[in-house]
Design a protein that fits this description.
Blueprint (H helix, E strand, L loop, with lengths): L2 H22 L3 E2 H9 L8 H13 L3 E6 L8 E6 L1 H26 L5
Antiparallel strand pairs: 1-3, 2-3
Helix pairs in contact: 1-4, 2-3
Length: 114
Amino acid sequence: MNIDDWRSQIKRGTLEFSILLMISQGPCYGYEIISRLERRPILAAKESTVYPLLRRLLGEGYLTSFWQESSQGLPPRKYYAVTERGMDYLAAMSGEWESLLEAINEIKEGTQHG
């Protein structure tokens, strides 16, 4: 396995978490999510990855969506917001993420746990 394969595996496991974190900070539309991810190359993802993920999160009840008209004469945009169920899921993911980081840092530092 090369570093690109490894990076792809990391991205697959963290993209959902990253997207939920972004949307939890305020409603976002699809292209905005993609653009914000692109600013962080390790998280950059294509439309063919992001939109199916958004549809799945909607279907699972973690997100809701609504259409909003543009003030600049552009077509309406579909915005996504995190539901209460999604916030519970995000809180659980955050706890797992913190545990993972703690375990990795312990291993890097050579410290023993418990």
